[in-house]
Amino acid sequence: MNIKQLRTLKQVAEFLAGAAPLGMSPPTQTERYRWIAQTLRHFRYETLAKADKGLVIAYLCRISGYSRQQITRLIRRTLDQGHLRWQVIPRRGFVARYTDEDVRLLAEIDTLHDTPSGPAVKKLCERAFGTFGDTRFERLSGISVSHLYNLRKTKDYRSRRLTHVKTAAVQRPIGIRRKPEPQGRPGFIRIDTVHQGDQDGLKGLYHINAVDEITQFEVLVTVERISEQFLIPALEALLASFPFVILGFHADNGSEYINRRVAELLEKLRIELTKSRARHCNDNALAESKNGAVVRKLLGYAHIPQRYASLVNRFNQEHLVPYINYHRPCFFPETFTDDQGKQRKRYRYKHMMTPYDKLKSLPKAETFLKKGVTFKHLDAIAFTISDNEAARRLQAARHQLFETIFGRKKAG
C-alpha cells in the first residue's frame, strides 16, 4: 500500500480525525501483513512514546480492518521475529468414511421401508450385505446407529428423502397446563369469553366472565373487542372487583388470555396463570356453566352491537354483579368417595347459599379479604335491600337496557 502521503504522526492523527481521505486497504492477507511491517519500520514503532504507539495502532486498525487485539499480536510477532509473513499451515482433517453413494443407499432404504428406526435400518443394511450378498451395503453394514442419524441430517440425504409431516400444533410456553388446586381457599378464578352474536357480518360485543372456584363469586365485564386495547384494562378492573385476594387465574387455551401481555399483568400482581389440559373438557367447566346459567339467561343470545359495550358494562357493575353475588343462591358440591373408590359430587339443598354467604362461611374468612375490605362494608352491600328488591331492580334495569339497545336499532 502507498503510504508516502502519511509520513508524519501529525498526518496520521489528521487522517484518523477524518481530515484526510481514506485510502484503499490491501486486497490480500499477504499484502496486508507486508504493509503492516513496512508501517512499523517507517514510524520506528519501538522508539515511540506510549501515546504515539496508540496512534499508530489505531491507524493500523483503521486501514487493515483488524481488531486492536489482532494488531497487537502482529506487532509483537514483528518485534520478536524481525519480520511478518502470512503463513497458511495446512491442517489434516477427518477422512470421510461414508461416501455420497452410501448416503444415496441410506435414502433409498428409508424410502422403501418408510423411514424405520435407526437400529432397524442398521439391521437391514447388515442383512442386505451379509444375508443377501449386496456389496453396495458393505460400509453401511458396519455403521453405528448414532452416525446413521448424522447421515440423515446431511444436505444430500434431505434432498433425496422428502418426508411429509402434519402441521405442528401451536406451542405457547405461557402458563402452566394443569388444573388449579385452591385447597379450600378463595381467589382461584376461572375465566371465559362469551360473544354476543354476529349480524350481517358485524361482530357483537364480548363478555368476560370470571368465577371463583370455591365461593362462585362472579364478576362480568363487557368490552367492545377482545383485542389488547380493550382486554388489559378490562382484566385490571375485573381483578380489582373481587373482595378477596386473587391467587390463581385459569383459562382455556384461547390467545386472548394466553399471551405475553396478560402473563405480564398477572406476574406483576403475583397471580398464577394456568390453562386447560388436552382431553380434559371439564377443566374450565365452572366458567362455561355460568356462561349459560347467568350470561345467556339474563342477556340472551341476540346480537348486541359493539358500540353499546360501555352501556352493558355499566348495567353489569350496578345491577348484575351485585345481584348474582349477594342475592342469588347457588348449589355447592359435596365431594364423597363411592364404594369403588371413585370421587363423586353431591349437591345437597342444605349447602345452597349465595356466593357471599359461602365466603363468610369459610374458616378464617377475614384473612382472605383484600386490604381495606371488611365484612362490615360487604354486609352493607348484601343486606341493604332484600333479594326480591334486588331482582326487581335488575329486571327493570335490564328492560330499560334492551329498550335502549333494540329501540335505537329499529329506529336506525
Give a nutshell description of this structure.
By secondary structure, the chain is an alpha/beta fold. It has 15 helices and ten strands.
Number of separate strands: 10
User: Based on helices, strands and strand pairing, what is the structural class?
Assistant: alpha/beta
The gyration radius over C-alpha positions equals: 38 Å
Strand content: 5-15%
Helix content: 40-55%
Oligomer: single chain
CATH superfamily of the largest domain: Ribonuclease H-like superfamily/Ribonuclease H
Please tell me the total number of domains.
Answer: 3
Overall geometry: extended
Number of helices: 15
Please mark out the parts with pLDDT under 50 across 5 or more consecutive residues, or reply none: 19-24
What is the annotated CATH architecture of the largest domain? 2-Layer Sandwich
Strand order of the largest sheet: 1-8-7-2-5-6
Let me know the average pLDDT: 87
